[in-house]
Each structure stands twice: as structure tokens, then as C-alpha cells.
Amino acid sequence: MNGNNATPLVTCRDVVKTYGSGNAEVHALRGVDLDVYPGELTMLVGPSGCGKTTLLSVVAGILRPTAGSVSVLRTDLTHLSSWRRTAFRRDHVGFVFQQFNLLPALTAAENAAVPLVIQGRSRRTALARSKELLDQMGMADRVSSLPGKLSGGQQQRVAIARALIHHPHLLVCDEPTSALDAKTGHTILELLRSIAVEGDRAVMIVTHDSRIFEFADTLARMDDGHIVSVERKNGRDKHEIDNQAIAS
Ligand SMILES: Nc1ncnc2c1ncn2[C@@H]1O[C@H](COP(=O)(O)OP(=O)(O)OP(=O)(O)O)[C@@H](O)[C@H]1O
Ligand SMILES: [Mg+2]
User: Fold this and answer.
1) Among 15, 30, 50, which residue has the most ligand 1 atoms within 8 Å of its CB, making it the best to mutate?
2) pLDDT tens, 122-168?
3) What is the pLDDT of residues 200-235, one digit of tens each?
4) CA 209, CA 136: separation in Å to the nearest integer?
5) Cys-Cys crosslink for 54: which of 28, 72, 94, 168, Cβ 3.0 to 4.6 Å?
6) Ligand 1 centre from 53 Cα, in Å?
7) Cα of 43 to ligand 2 centre, how many Å?
8) In what order do the strands lie in the sheet with 218-223?
9) pTM for this model (two decimals)
């Protein structure tokens, strides 16, 4: 998809985030403008401390900016009460982190089912959907395994299934490959591309890992609280891969 013709799913305008006050003030975001399009994978890259996690947290409705506006799905998050922001997050946003944050006493399928159970679906429905998704991700034979028995890449697949199970419109991933070796990181990105990037969903990934930059449709470079360049790439098709190849 050419995002230039689409309506952005996320719009940030002059977003400022300052932590602390007085001498302890940290200017993490100093006026960020960014549009993120559905059907695309947008990467936020830049040196440590430049504000990537802060920007992702603001977009995902975890942090309220100090100034500026953030709209997701035409909803201005800055004007929502914290209760409504939490509800918005639960319904529309999926999260994937560097550490997989799986619950150790639950199986892979149970972990991935958690968001549906929280939404009030029956355990049976949630588990059926979870197993279907894990199957799609090449994990059919590990649905009953506990996280401690899974490799890092397998745990990250479960975390991705958990993030996608309620069909969020926005998937945000903070350093999803940095706890993984290069080959596994590559496989995880291929999986995110094939499973997560859909017509009505925007995927945002924060990363240091230059080896995965090639997977981006849009590469936004940050430095010192600013976005310093936005590179839009064409020819995404070359990264489209066959689900069967992942499952094998
Ligand atoms: N809760 C906080 N309180 C105070 N300062 C913070 C807080 N969180 C982040 N910062 C500061 O804000 C700036 C931006 O931090 P942020 O975590 O967004 O950077 P980052 O680009 O994600 O870095 P990294 O690549 O190391 O994860 C840094 O100077 C950081 O020290
Ligand atoms: Mg960070």
C-alpha cells in the first residue's frame, strides 16, 4: 500500500514530553510530528536515550504528553480521561516487548489467550482462537508448553500471538528482536510482516537493530527528542513471505 494515499492511523503533532521538573527536567520529546499509516510497518530508530520508547508510549496511550496532540483512529488521546485511555488501549492496541513477559505458570496457548479472557470471552473460545493463531505462527506443536520450555524466538511468537489475538488496530513493539540472535530476530520480523501488517492495522517497531531496518515501509530516524528524517520505502513486496515457509 502507498501510505501517501491513505489516512494516517496515528497522527502526532508537535508532541512534547518532559520528565521531572526544575533541575531534574529531561526533554525526552521536543516537538515531534509523525504520521503512521495502516497496512504499513513503521520503524523508529535512533541512538539510546533519543526518545523512542517515550514516543511509542505516548502513541500507545501509556504516557500522556506534556504538550501537543496524539490521535489514534481519529481519537485524540490527549483529551481522554485516564480511564478511557486504558479502555482504548485494551481495545485497540497490542504490545510486544524485548522481554516477552509471559506468565510462567500458563501454557503458550493460555498466555496468548489472556487478552480475550480479560475482554470477557469464554475460556474455551479464547483458547480455540489462541491455538489457531499459534498454529498460523508455526507453533502448533508447542501450544501446551510452558514458557520455560520454549526458546526465546518461540516465546516471542507467543507474545506476538497474545498481542494480536484481539485484532488491535495498532501494534507497538519495543526492541522485539534485541533479546534474540540475528537469525531468530530475522524470522520474527518476517512473521510480524506476514501476520501483523494488515490493511487496517499499523505496526510500529522501535529498534536499535540495523539488521532489521530492511523490513520497514517507513523508517523514522530520531535524535535528541526530534524526528530528524522520515524515509518512505517502496517495493515492500520483496519482503512478503509465504506463511508456509515460517511454519516449516
Ligand atoms: N520515567 C522517566 N523519568 C525520567 N526520565 C526518563 C524517564 N523515562 C525516560 N527518561 C529519559 O528520557 C529520555 C528518553 O528516554 P527513552 O527511554 O524514550 O529513550 P530510548 O530512545 O527509548 O532509549 P533506548 O534506546 O536506550 O531504549 C532519556 O534521557 C531517558 O533517560
Ligand atoms: Mg527504549
Assistant:
1) 50
2) 999 999 999 999 999 999 999 999 999 999 999 999 999 999 999 99
3) 999 999 998 888 899 999 999 999 999 999 999 864
4) 26
5) 28
6) 7
7) 13
8) 93-97, 170-174, 202-207, 41-45, 218-223, 226-232
9) 0.91
